[in-house]
Each structure stands twice: as structure tokens, then as C-alpha cells.
Design goal:
Layout: E1 2-3, E2 6-13, E3 22-27, H1 44-50, H2 55-70, H3 74-85, H4 92-108, H5 115-120, H6 126-139, H7 144-156, H8 160-176, H9 182-194, H10 198-211, H11 216-231, H12 252-262, H13 268-284, H14 289-302, H15 305-322, H16 325-351, H17 355-382, H18 388-399, H19 403-413, H20 417-433, H21 437-449, H22 457-477, H23 480-496, H24 503-519
Antiparallel strand pairs: 1-2, 2-3
Helix pairs in contact: 2-3, 2-4, 3-4, 6-7, 7-8, 7-9, 8-9, 8-10, 9-10, 10-11, 11-12, 13-14, 14-15, 15-16, 16-17, 17-18, 18-19, 18-20, 19-20, 20-21, 20-22, 21-22, 22-23, 22-24, 23-24
């Protein structure tokens, strides 16, 4: 078969079962996303060539697929659906039919699809990469990771509608996974962003932010996508119309609002206009998640007391209407934000010897601490697979010298790599503070082994604390080797940072302890 863009070689692949023969094309002179013979970049033209739509051939396979699926031959039906999708990968009825067959087969057999069905997804080129990912998901329909890969593969070849359909199911499976990882959500977010399914991209991104609230760059990216989703809402249904997803964005006034929203520093006038626009959008669709989030964000950006009060009420109401836990968390965070400002104001007055503030400060700080603990406990319960709330709650207790309360939290939060070194550091020190010297030493050594830089603040703190624990043990056990270990650590700290805390005095004490124990 010859096409306008060069020769294409077709190879017949016949199913072992009765049914239409299958054809797979392989290009003899085509480099996908590379350079053509003239050295020019191919880009999307090559993608269009690679997606060789032949709906008439696909229809024969789809008819066969539905016929055998109705008789309960689910494995063979999957084979036929895949063979048809090779000719028409954008067909939504075929995609749904395939997954219905896959789900039915998974319910009646643990073996999964047979070899012939696996061959149906075997081939070169972007379409077969998508079919392979689709089959992997169909083999395990409840597997979140496989669903994410299928959504990504669909997005890679610009199958917008299939990508959206798969993406909806992938995000449900991913969020239902008790061991959901940030990386999985980021892959899904990227795929949905590529497919311009911004509402799903935002949903995945927001879940990733909840897992890692410290990722400010991600939060900003999600916020920008939310703005795109807001302005382009309904665009997915208009994908085939003039302008598609982006037609609303071209509106000059709305585009200016987006540009203003992206600015780090905003004038009061810009903040006012952004709030007015967000209110107008919210009033048009008060139960929409994106509209609520945008208005709350704009109010908090301006940050007047009345804004914070309204943002708090909106967050609580949005939690009730949408059921999204993120709004409940935001309401609690606004409470803390207001209380933090109040405590800071009292502290500033107390530092200026304001008598009433001096008397009030301890009570205000105690109340604020209790609210922080309450918030983190709520997060621990709301996100049982997330170790970040445990780490933050443990740190609150640690700073309040409530070491026994902190220990079990750090023992759990150390399981996550990003909190491991810090958790072990405070866990070791907590053991030491309650007199458990040996567990403190073992834990601190483990923390040092897991911390890559011994010359940053945490690195110095770990070594200093270990040195103190070793000196305490050496004195208690009258053990010279332990004292020598403490002296060695004190020496290394002094050599690299002579002004660190009281390391000069500690080195002298360690050296004297070694001498005394040797004499004894």
C-alpha cells in the first residue's frame, strides 16, 4: 500500500481464532518525532501519519468484538476490540467495549488475557504503545498505576477524548489507593494537562499538593491550571468547534486577569479586580470546586480581616456542598492564620513592655499551640497514609518538650524518605531527653547515616547531639572507648566550625573525660 508520504509495508497477522485478518503497518522511510530524509523535524505531521485511521477496517473488527462479547467470549472480544483500535484508536465505543470485556474477564478468570490477545497489542509505533498500555490496564482494571500509564499513552498521541475518559477512571483509582504516591499523581497531572483536560489535571495536582504541601512550585502550577480550567470551562465539549479549549482564553479582559493573577507582586487595585472577577464567577456556579478555590485564594491574597472571615465561611460551605476534604483543611488553616497574626500582635506589644500584653501572651501562645495540635491531629486522621502530618505533630510536641508524645510520631514519619533524617534526629534527641541513652545513640547514628550532608545545620545538630549522648553514656558506664568516640566527634565539629554552639567547651570536656577514664 503506497501513501503520499512514502512506501508502507503491511504484514498480515492472523488470529488463531476465527475472525478477520489483522494488518499492521511498518514504515520503511519514516522517523516518528525525529528527522526525515531531508533532515527536517517531523513534529505533529509524523504523528498524523502514524495514526493511520481506517474506520472501515476498524468497523469489521468492532462488529466482531461486540458479537463475541455478547456470547461471553471476553478474551476474544478484547482481541477484536484491540485489533479494531489499531485502525481507529480514537473510537470511544470501542474503548468502552474493550474495558467492559476486560472487567468481565477479570471477574471470571485470574489468568488474564491469552497470548493471542496480547499479540493484538504488539507492534511498533505510537498507536501500539497506547494499545499495549490499554491492554496492561485491561488485564488489571483496578490497578491505578496501569490506568495512569494508559491515560498518559493516550495523551501522548493526542487522543483527547480517550485520554479524558481513561483519566477520569485513573484518578478515581489513584485517589482510592491507600498507598498513593506523589509521583503517580504528577504523572497523571502531566498527562491530563497535555490532553488539555485541566479539570482532571487540577484534581490530580491538588491531591499531590496535599501529599507534599511544601512544594510551592507545584502549588503555583496547579493554581495556574485551575485558572485555565475556570476560563475554559465547557471547552472539552467544544473540542470539535472553532477554537476548542482555548477560545475563551483569547478574550482580552480575561487574559489580562490571568496575567495579573500570575504576578508575584500585585497592587491593591489588581487584587480588588481579581476578587470582583472571582466573585462573579462564583455567583454563577457556587458549587463549582474551581470557582470556590479561586475566590478563597483571591480573598486570602488581599488578606483583610473581612476577607479572611469570608474565606473561612466559603471553605466550610464548599466542604459541605462538595465533600472535598481540602476545603475543610483550608478552613482550619485560615483559623490558624488569624490566630497566628493575633499572637504575633500580642508578642510585639509584650516586647514593648505593654503590661496587658505581657500578661496575655502565655495564654495566647498556649491556645495557639493547642489549635496547631488539633489541626495536625485532624490531618493525621483525614490522611492516614500521609506521614507529613505525623511529622509536623511530632515536631510540635518536640518543641514543647513533650518528648514521650513525640516519639511514636517520629517512629512512623521516619518511614518516608523526605522526613527520615529529621525524624530520626528529633527521635534520637527525644530518647536522650527521657533518659534512654542507648536508643538515642543508635537512632542518632542511623540519622547521620541517612543524612547526606554533615556540614549543614542538621548535620551539625546530629553530630553535636550524638556527642552529648556518648559523653553521658561514657560517664555512666565509665567506658573510655565511648568517651573517645565523643571526643572524636567534638574534634571534627570544632575543626570545621569552631564557633558552633559551645563546641570548644565540649571538646575540652570530652578530652578531659577520656583522660580521667584512662587514669581510672
Amino acid at each position: 500500500m503506497l501513501g503520499a508520504h512514502g512506501a508502507r509495508k503491511w504484514t498480515r497477522m492472523t488470529s488463531a481464532r476465527a475472525g478477520p485478518g489483522r494488518f499492521v503497518w511498518r514504515s520503511t522511510g519514516l522517523a516518528i518525532f525525529g528527522k526525515n530524509k531531508g533532515g527536517e523535524e517531523n513534529g505533529n505531521d509524523d504523528l498524523d501519519r502514524a495514526l493511520n485511521y481506517e474506520p472501515e477496517k476498524a468497523k469489521v473488527w468492532f462488529t466482531q468484538a461486540q458479537t463475541v462479547q455478547d456470547t461471553g467470549s471476553y478474551d476474544y472480544a478484547m482481541n477484536c476490540w484491540l485489533s479494531g483500535l489499531a485502525f481507529d484508536p480514537s473510537n470511544m465505543n470501542a474503548l468502552e467495549g474493550f474495558m467492559n470485556a476486560a472487567t468481565a474477564l477479570a471477574g471470571e478468570s485470574k489468568k488474564g488475557p491469552g497470548k493471542e490477545t496480547q499479540k493484538a497489542a504488539a507492534g511498533k509505533g505510537p498507536v501500539f504503545k497506547y494499545l499495549s498500555a490499554l491492554l496492561a490496564w485491561g488485564s488489571k482494571p483496578s490497578n491505578a498505576s496501569a490506568a495512569v500509564k494508559a491515560a498518559s499513552a493516550a495523551a501522548d498521541i493526542e487522543l483527547s477524548e480517550p485520554a479524558y475518559w481513561i483519566g477520569e477512571r485513573a484518578i478515581q483509582l489513584t485517589l482510592a489507593d491507600p498507598k498513593v504516591k506523589k509521583d503517580a499523581l504528577l504523572r497523571l497531572m502531566k498527562a491530563m494537562e497535555s490532553a488539555e483536560a485541566f479539570d482532571l489535571a487540577v484534581k490530580a495536582g491538588e491531591a499531590a499538593v496535599r501529599l507534599d504541601p511544601t512544594d510551592n512550585a507545584l502549588e503555583s502550577r496547579v493554581r495556574n491550571m485551575a485558572a485555565q480550567a475556570t476560563i475554559g470551562r465547557g471547552g472539552f465539549d467544544e473540542a470539535g468547534e472553532q477554537g476548542g479549549f482555548r477560545k475563551n482564553v483569547r478574550d482580552a479582559d480575561k487574559q489580562k486577569l490571568l496575567d495579573d493573577a500570575d504576578k508575584i507582586t500585585k497592587t491593591d487595585d489588581v487584587k480588588d479586580r481579581l476578587i470582583d472577577a472571582a466573585k462573579e464567577d462564583y455567583e454563577a456556579r457556587p458549587e463549582d470546586v474551581a470557582a470556590n478555590k479561586t475566590l478563597i485564594k483571591r480573598l486570602l491574597d488581599r488578606g483583610k480581616p473581612a476577607d479572611e472571615k469570608l474565606a473561612y465561611k466559603l471553605a466550610l460551605k464548599a466542604h459541605e456542598t462538595t465533600g472535598q476534604v481540602s476545603f475543610k483543611q483550608q478552613a482550619l488553616e485560615i483559623e490558624l492564620r488569624v490566630m497566628r497574626k493575633q499572637v504575633a500582635d500580642i508578642r510585639n506589644k509584650a516586647e514593648s513592655d505593654h503590661a496587658e500584653a505581657v500578661e496575655l501572651l502565655p495564654k495566647a501562645e498556649k491556645k495557639y499551640f493547642a489549635k496547631q495540635v488539633e489541626f495536625q491531629k485532624w490531618r493525621v486522621d483525614a490522611f492516614p497514609t500521609d506521614n507529613e502530618p505525623r511529622f509536623q505533630l511530632g515536631r510540635l510536641y518536640f518543641n514543647a518538650e513533650m518528648y514521650k508524645e513525640a516519639i511514636p510520631l517520629f517512629q512512623k514519619s521516619q518511614a518516608e524518605n523526605r522526613f527520615k533524617a529529621s525524624s530520626l534526629a528529633m527521635l534520637g534527641e527525644s530518647f536522650g531527653k527521657i533518659g534512654l541513652t542507648d536508643p538515642a545513640i543508635d537512632t542518632l547514628k542511623q540519622a547521620i547515616a541517612n543524612h547526606s550532608d554533615d556540614t549543614d545545620d542538621l548535620g551539625y545538630q546530629l553530630r553535636y547531639t550524638l556527642m552529648a549522648m556518648l559523653m553521658a553514656k561514657a560517664e555512666s558506664d565509665q567506658d573510655v572507648s565511648t568517651a573517645q568516640e565523643a571526643e572524636k566527634i567534638a574534634s571534627s565539629i570544632a575543626m570545621s566550625r569552631f564557633d558552633y554552639k559551645d563546641i570548644q567547651d565540649q571538646y575540652t570536656k570530652a578530652k578531659q573525660l577520656v583522660s580521667d577514664l584512662r587514669g581510672a
